[in-house]
């Protein structure tokens, strides 16, 4: 990472290795507990009524967490990246001649969009392949039993239909029903009558009357939650390592103390948003536990690595500043995309939110409060 010195260390007047090491040791355990509790709360909330992912409390809390993540990307990560890539220790060319922090963040956002798109396509194809496998097996079984299933009305006026003709009629009938089901599922307007349609659909399901057969289903909504949770974890982990490393290499209690408090707040609500996405995706217990554990330990591991290399690592060296600035920019782009597209837009533009104006207002207030609270922490860290 480079050990060449560029001027003096920041906060030189508050430099105290022993006091900083003591605070960093405490920070490892405190941040670990905060992140683990935040990510575990919605996962364990599957059994608790007030934290279930279908409840209003979860929607409001998730909006608050989305505001925290959005402020983390804009106010903390992007500003830190700009400060690192425009530091006076770096040469003028090319770092001071071009806004690399915003440019790299833009590229990271576009790459996240691509990963989001490809992941969704992959899981949709996988889902459709599984559905086609179920349909094929059912169709083969139907072919084997066609004599018993052939209706008596197939023989009229002395004209008996052959098995191929009868099977062809039945096949066309099934295809027609599937086409009707597909068109019917997309025929509901999403405007003023969307709430009435939702109620109408619920009543039909409740009393068993439906215009569709469940032979073919649309790709499950869980597909989006699966992709969102995986991409969100990728973005969170990428910047958790950097912020953990930054805290670990610091030798100044004046820097470690406020940063520890900010990271506890930050990790808890980031964990809550990630845990909510994992819970909505319906992962198996083992997979959900692995994802939650990986998130919880990332920042403490980064702090531990920073402590280990603090004696040979100079955060003010040109190479270290470039690496830090690039990774901070990438993290900012990923977090901004995930907050705006997969958390805020996905929830605030959903039918459930649009049909509940009170929930929409409260969630919007929670979103603003979350962003403002996380932004205010930039005063100290």
What does the secondary structure layout of this molecule look like, with pairings?
Elements: H1 17-44, H2 56-85, H3 100-144, H4 146-149, E1 155-156, E2 159-160, H5 163-185, H6 194-206, H7 222-249, H8 253-281, H9 285-309, H10 318-348, H11 351-354, H12 357-376
Helix pairs in contact: 1-8, 1-9, 2-3, 2-8, 2-10, 2-12, 3-7, 3-10, 7-8, 7-9, 7-10, 8-9
Number of distinct beta strands: 2
* Spatial strand sequence of the major β-sheet: 1-2
Radius of gyration: 27 Å
Secondary structure: helix percent: over 70%
Name the overall outline: globular
Element pattern in H and E: HHHHEEHHHHHHHH
The proportion of strand residues reads under 5%
Structural class by SSE content: mainly alpha
Residue windows where pLDDT falls under 50 for at least 5 positions: 148-157, 165-193, 199-219
Query: What's the N-to-C terminus distance?
Result: 23 Å
Number of helices: 12
Q: Largest sheet at a glance?
A: 2 strands, antiparallel
Query: What is the overall pLDDT average?
Result: 77
Key structural traits:
single chain, 381 residues, mainly alpha, 73% helix, globular
What's the gist of this structure?
The protein is mostly helical and 381 residues long. It has 12 helices and 2 strands; from the N terminus they run H-H-H-H-E-E-H-H-H-H-H-H-H-H.
Structure description:
A two-stranded antiparallel sheet has the order 1-2. The chain is built from 12 helices and 2 strands, in the order H-H-H-H-E-E-H-H-H-H-H-H-H-H. Helix 3 (100-144) crosses helix 10 and helix 7 runs antiparallel to helix 8 (253-281). It starts with 16 loop residues before the first helix and ends in a 5-residue tail after the last helix. By secondary structure, it is an all-alpha fold.
